[in-house]
Description:
Shape: elongated
Distance between the termini: 13 Å
Helix content: 55-70%
Number of helices: 2
Number of strands: 2
Order of helices and strands: HEEH
Structural class: mainly alpha
Strand order of the largest sheet: 1-2
Radius of gyration: 21 Å
Largest sheet: 2 strands, antiparallel
Amino acid sequence: xxxxxxxxxxxxxxxxxxxxxxxxxxxxxxxxxxxxxxxxxxxxxxxxxxxxxxxxxxxxxxxxxxxxxxxxxxxxxxxxxxxxxxxxxxxxxxxxxxxxxxxxxxx
Length: 107
């Protein structure tokens, strides 16, 4: 007999959607209307600026190619690290008692 993971109810799904929409929508709007215009102006003037002992262009390049991937890695590890470690230890996905959005068999 195959076992299936428990699913979220309709009310729980709507609560998840409302929770994530409550933080994601303001973040998207702030990024679109405040951060991107400021960043575009900064990029245009970066070769002419100094940020302490470094040129602004060096800080920009290192921020894009080192800072962003490093920050992304830390965020993913913080959000998924413990879960992935437990899946690896138990050799089962989804974890026992973990709710899922669609019908999923335990593997």
